[in-house]
Amino acid sequence: MSNRTNEALVAAMKQKAPNGDTLVNKLVEMLSLSKVAIYRRLRSEVPFTYDEVTKIAIHYDISLDQLMGADINLNKSKWAVADLDMLFTSTGNYRQYCNKISSFADLFRDMQYARSAKMYCAANIFPHTFILPFENLSRFFYYKWNYLVSGVNPNYCFSKMETPAEVKEVNKRFMEEAKHVQRTLYILSRSLFTDTVSDIRKFHEHGLITEKELELFKKDLHGLLGMIERIAATGCNDAGKETVIYLSDITLDASYVYLECDHQTLSIHRSFFIDSLNFKNSTICRIQRDWVEMLKRYSTLITQCCELQRFEYIGKQRKLIDELSSNGY
Q: For 98-108, how does the pLDDT look when each residue is reduced to its tens digit (9 = 90+)?
């Protein structure tokens, strides 16, 4: 690591932890080094190793993009560090799920106390803020994800899946924190309900979902549709926070989330149900924000306007949900 990057790290740490003695003691504990070794690093006599920088950046929430861009020989715009530590592996799925959901809950909690905070979401799969309030529907998405990534027995039925208490608790915390974000904008794919109903039917066709469970899913899907209808009619969520919904008139190739909290930004590229690549790089964040703004031009705003289009959309989804039964195939 160059001296310039080392100095940038030291400056960032001092800003996050202005008390020098506390900072030194914390680094001694975190890095398992002596005070002498820590002081030498803080004076840039000895550079921090990349492993040490990673631990420090995670603890103090320091952008690695900015540190690397501090080097005079580096073009900052060419660097983008993704948070890869929480990407899923094939084992320990439910704990990784809890860690990911918990990290987002923490993020939403911090956004509540910001002077200005907003979230933009363009989604070709249901956002977690939409499905987690509905127990059976959220269990289905969790079941489908486990079925695909865990290599379970192909005869593993939905009824056999037990949702760990830790998962229920972290879902509850996510819902409580997310609904207090000051301003949220959604651009939703028009195929969200169609795709979900199709997936549920496929599992039912293979005998993995019962008729009784179909009725539970129908109830939750109607509840979700009702929530979307209320938001579109009032312009706010159940917590009274400003919420705007657009329906995309073009195909969304992926799901994106752009978060802005005071002067900090975060870009989230969602994949694999709960997995995501998270970037703090200012260039990527700006591009993603501009992309979502562009998508608005090719979408229909249904919040407190365009009532005919909204009624038509709600009516089609309601009919689609009602046909979710063996008689509706």
A: 888 888 898 88
Whole-angstrom Cα distance, residue 301 to residue 155? 43
| Residues with Cβ within 8 Å of residue 322, at least 6 apart in sequence | 218, 328
Q: What Å distances lie between residue 200 and 138, 215, 230, 252, 273, CA to CA?
A: 12, 11, 25, 21, 15
The string of DSSP codes covering 99-150 is: HHHHHHHHHHHHHHTSSSEEEEEEESS--HHHHTTSHHHHHHHHHHHHHHHT
Yes or no: say if 257 and 222 are a contact pair by the CB < 8 Å rule: no
Q: What is the pLDDT of residues 70-83, one digit of tens each?
A: 454 444 444 444 44
- Its sign, for the CA torsion 283, 59, 105, 182, is negative
Whether the model clears a pTM of 0.90, i.e. scores above it, the answer is no
CA dihedral 157, 162, 166, 170 (to 10 degrees): 50
Residue whose structure tokens are 């799901």: 255
